[in-house]
Amino acid sequence: MHEFALYGLVSRDDHDRTLQQLAGYTRMQPQETTEIHLVFKPRKPLGLDHLPSAGGSQGVMQQDVQKLKTMLNAGLYYMQLIGEIVPQKSLVTENGDVAMSNGNDDGKPDTSAVRWSLDFKDTPEPGKQAVSTRLVSRIPMNDGNFVKFLDNFGYEYVSRYMVVGSRFYDHDTSLFVHKVLRLPQVPADEALRDTSFLTKTSELPEQDGSGGYLIQASIDVVDGNNPDLKDRATRQLLALKEALRQAVELTPGDRLALDTRVPLTS
Amino acid sequence: MPSTGLFFLPIAPNQASPSATLVAHISRSFPAQALPTFHLDHRLFVDTPSLLPNSDASLRRFTSILTLSHTPGTTYVGTTSPKDRATATEQPVASTLVTIPSTHADPFTQLIGTKIQPHWAHRQSLVVDNGTALALQPQEWAVRIGDVKIPTGRSGQQTTSNLRGMLVEVSLNNASAQHERLDSTTEEETELEAISKDEETLIRAFLDSLIDGTGVQMTNSRALFRNTRIPSEDNDTNGVVDWGLAKLYMDMLRTPR
Questions:
Q1: Can you tell me where the transmembrane regions are (chain B) (predicted)?
Q2: B58: helix, coil or strand?
Q3: Rounded to 5°, angle at Cα B152 from B146 and B156
């Protein structure tokens, strides 16, 4: 699946107005979204030193080794385990102040109300493009010990953070106005279970001290290599960009800022 | 809690599978009741570095993606833990499983094959397409028989037969001899679910009685046993997870080449 996206910034002061404009544009009330993001870093595959030095000529054997070498040297990507908080009761959204979920004690969400999925995002495709394009994959994880599984799979837990925001949908396009909150860091085996912070999200420190928000407008295309669909998605996003020009500036993302690869030097 | 025995009979190239004979014999000779078709899909990956010429194959790690007709909506993904050099040969492989919706088995397979290739390399896919599942002496025994094949059309090498062997699953739903502890739902607990020697003997004897008179020889087969969870006659298996059964199949299908 491919994701086509444009990004923009919304300052704290503009936030409420932007939400209202988006609500007007999409003719829907924002859907409050809270996600826990656990970041996993791939371990370097061992055995790169086992590689026989170049120069030997053993025919077919050599070809296999060459293939393995290419595989081993392919890019390593961070992955995330994303937990979407599913409200126990459908919360009634307030019209005005929708920045945060109301931190009152109305039905504490417990652990079972988190819907987890394994999220892979490629680095956006290179070249000057009208919209950012990248391969994405989101696999719902139903049951099991995810952290231990990922550990065996070659991925180490690094840290976690939270994303809160409002989502809008317009045909195929989803618009997500969100910000990143820092979470208390805990060891890997607790990272999944510990959700004690959910009752006091308003107290969590913001990653961006200015209180600004990010906005992402994106379209997911199952067959992203299909040129027709690619064109259509691009056209839709550019039309949206034009329509929202007065409210927010949407641009393709900085490719290197969206890089999900592990740097070679680390 | 049912006890399940799984038997894999390797079949040499150009030999026919005895499965049809076996199914016909059982349906004729026993009060058998057909259960939904038995099928499975197993994709095996090994850690890429272990394929290098100088690496120690006994330390090889595996990832399996398994879908079973017992729990059709669920796909199991299992990874084995890294092994110690000292205990590598003796220890049974401990694995950690998670479940994903079976609709995501293909996307996950693709992701591993492209973006996770420094870690994992595809090794073998095996399928049972049109197997037979029978309930015998209702509620007590269930037998599943299927031909294990390499799926065709994937790599274009169809010159040789793609039949690898016959799989026979025999499960005894011994509700009468209920274990004290309840069916475990957490995945870790299933590590303990080895079955008793008596149950193993019982399952073997039952299989012998089934194949008696068919001329099918199971002596060359490999066998694995485990306590599993789902009673075979349970119809509503959507969303149900059977860790024990999934591990049993993964352990079995990891090895035949």
A1: none
A2: helix
A3: 155
Q: What is the pLDDT of residues B127-166, one digit of tens each?
A: 999 899 999 986 689 999 999 999 876 555 555 568 999 9
Structure confidence by residue, pLDDT tens digits, B83-102: 766 655 555 678 899 999 99
Q: Which chain A residues touch B71 with a CB distance below 8 Å?
A: none
| CB-based contact A122 B115, cutoff 8 Å | yes
pLDDT of amino acid A161: 95
Q: Which residues pair with B172 in a beta bridge?
A: B3, B141
Q: Coil, strand or helix: which one is A144?
A: strand
SS3 for B224? strand
Q: What is the largest distance, in Å, between two alpha-carbon atoms of chain B?
A: 55
Q: What is the pLDDT of residues B27-45, one digit of tens each?
A: 999 888 999 999 999 999 9
Q: Which two tokens stand for residue B241?
A: 């997870």
Residue with tokens 């199971």: B218
CA dist A67 → A17, B29, B85, B159, B201 (Å) = 55, 53, 27, 24, 47
Weakest mean pLDDT among B77-91, B157-171, B184-198:
B184-198
- Residue A139 is nearest to which of B50, B80, B104, comparing CB atoms? B104
Q: Which CATH superfamily is domain A2-48+59-100+107-243 in?
A: Hypothetical Protein Pfu-838710-001 (2.40.320.10)
Alpha carbon of B100: minimum distance to chain A alpha carbons (Å)? 5
Q: Judge whether B119 is closer than 8 Å to chain A, CB to CB.
A: yes
Q: Are strands A79-85 and B62-68 parallel, antiparallel or unpaired?
A: unpaired
Quickly count: other Cβ atoms within 10 Å of residue B35's Cβ. 18
Q: Does B120 touch chain A (CB under 8 A)?
A: yes
Residue B19 contacts by C-beta under 8 Å, 6 or more apart in sequence? Answer: B131, B132, B145, B146, B147, B166
B214 with B25: CB under 8 angstroms?
Answer: yes
Q: What is the pLDDT of residue A180?
A: 96
Q: Which of A71, A112, A64 is nearest to A88 (CA)?
A: A112
ipTM, 2 decimals? 0.86
pLDDT at B43: 96
Inter-chain residue contact B100 with A42, CB threshold 8 Å: no
pLDDT in the model for residue B88: 53
**Mind listing the pLDDT tens digit for each residue in A133-175?**
999 999 999 999 999 999 999 999 999 999 999 999 998 999 9
